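Postdoc handover notes: sequence design on the structure in folder B. Input tokens:
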């Protein structure tokens, strides 16, 4: 598979397929060949589907030959995180004990991709039960970062981020309840979007955190992200987790620019991270200013309050979601990585009084209102995505002269899961050691279009998204 094709955008692949510059079978076969070569090291797939993918590719080619060009993703190779149900395909949530779990129906987000013409290459490896951002799965092994295979790609959508970065697929769909789309996007140097809670369906996804989870795309470019969200967003008949809100045309507005846009920054909040990360963030703000945006100071609700509320909600919701699985397979949790998914933590979540959960959900509403007031006069909020440039497996390094913690790791991402607002990570630089750094742009509820517009303007003014890891097939 040539590098040009391996790292082609969805737009370029779709155009090439329509004009018959190459066939879908050629694209899929090259994708499979590249995957077989690189995934021996990267370990990004739990299930690979070569026969089904090639059969689908032949069908797409036949449609194109008849003048039928299918949906917006017709012929595009994709992967799906392996806790999103896919009919007839094992869906493990990263646990070997669930290899026998073969859903009879697709989750709505998977069905939307398939109906749009996408070619499913396989199910992406992930943190077990979508817990944590280590990229270390005790059942299926460590998922490797293609920029440096001794480092993690982040998690829990670990395989998804690594696949897009390594040129294995141009689109993967992951999930995010603490940063699990945006952290892999930042650490792998790709684009990752967590939509508004309720913008995309959670039906048919391994139940983890009912009110904190979000499904969304990881792509190479912001425009590809807009195309993917257009497919994924909206309410469908019979869905229980989507809002009945109109879906705008994201691709029509993504090129609108940031001239006159007000970008909010809370300097007290943006204070944790390696110097290279914070410096890259400041340069990104300068770039937005040069494009006509105005950067203004805002004061967000305290992150420790948001975190405390979110932790209570998460503990309760996970203990409910995992109760049956914990009863039937307790060993799965005793061997979990990180230990936050352990049986002891699930039992602790079960012991939290219902009144505390209710108070936490009420306090979340107060925090959402405070956030809305704090950002009333800005269109987007900017933060770093992840405080580290490069996430080692195992213990965290020291940062700013103190021990880095798991709470630090999700400092910039978890609050926006709790608040339920859309947040996007776009590449904004590299460390001296060659690790990608991410810029996070956050917009108002159901206004993903503005975050995409700001990210696209920044992306087009910089060259970070044009860099790819060097991996030899």
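Designed sequence:
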């Amino acid at each position: 598979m040539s590098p040009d094709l391996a790292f082609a955008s969805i737009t370029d692949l779709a155009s090439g397929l329509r004009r018959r510059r190459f066939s879908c079978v050629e694209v899929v076969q090259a994708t499979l060949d590249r995957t077989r070569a690189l995934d021996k090291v990267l370990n990004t797939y739990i299930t690979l589907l070569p026969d089904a993918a090639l059969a689908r590719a032949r069908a797409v080619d036949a449609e194109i030959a008849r003048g039928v060009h299918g949906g917006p993703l017709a012929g595009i190779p994709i992967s799906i995180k392996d806790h999103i149900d896919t009919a007839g395909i094992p869906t493990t949530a990263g646990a070997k004990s669930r290899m026998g779990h073969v859903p009879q129906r697709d989750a709505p987000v998977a069905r939307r991709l398939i109906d749009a013409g996408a070619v499913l290459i396989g199910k992406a490896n992930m943190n077990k039960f979508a817990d944590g951002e280590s990229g270390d799965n005790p059942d299926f092994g460590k998922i490797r970062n293609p920029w440096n295979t001794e480092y993690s790609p982040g998690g829990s959508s670990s395989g998804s981020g690594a696949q897009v970065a390594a040129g294995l697929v141009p689109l993967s769909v992951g999930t995010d309840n603490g940063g699990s789309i945006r952290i892999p996007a930042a650490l792998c140097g790709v684009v990752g979007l967590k939509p508004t809670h309720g913008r995309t369906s959670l039906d048919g996804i391994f139940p983890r955190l009912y009110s904190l989870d979000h499904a969304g795309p990881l792509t190479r470019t912001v425009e590809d992200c807009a195309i993917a969200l257009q497919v994924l967003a909206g309410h469908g008949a019979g869905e229980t987790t989507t809002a009945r809100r109109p879906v705008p045309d994201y691709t029509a507005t993504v090129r609108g620019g940031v001239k006159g846009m007000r970008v909010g920054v809370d300097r007290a909040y943006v204070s944790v991270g390696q110097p290279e990360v914070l410096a890259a963030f400041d340069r990104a703000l300068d770039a937005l200013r040069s494009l006509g945006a105005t950067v203004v100071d805002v004061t967000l609700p305290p992150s420790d309050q948001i975190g405390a509320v979110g932790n209570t909600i998460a503990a309760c919701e996970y203990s409910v979601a995992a109760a049956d699985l914990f009863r039937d397979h307790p060993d799965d949790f005793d061997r979990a990585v990180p230990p936050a998914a352990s049986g002891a933590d699930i039992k602790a979540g079960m012991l939290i009084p219902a009144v505390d959960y209710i108070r936490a959900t009420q306090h979340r509403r107060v925090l959402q209102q405070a956030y809305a007031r704090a950002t009333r006069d800005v269109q987007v909020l900017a933060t770093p995505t992840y405080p580290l440039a490069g996430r080692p497996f195992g213990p965290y390094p020291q940062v700013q002269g103190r021990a880095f913690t798991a709470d630090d790791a999700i400092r910039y991402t978890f609050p926006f899961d709790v608040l339920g607002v859309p947040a996007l990570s776009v590449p904004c630089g590299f460390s001296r050691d060659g690790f990608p750094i991410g810029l996070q742009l956050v917009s108002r509820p159901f206004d993903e279009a503005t975050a995409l517009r700001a990210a696209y303007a920044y992306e087009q003014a910089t060259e970070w998204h044009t860099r790819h890891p060097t991996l030899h097939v």
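Context for whoever picks this up: DSSP finds 18 helices and 17 strands in the chain. Don't rerun without checking with the PI first.
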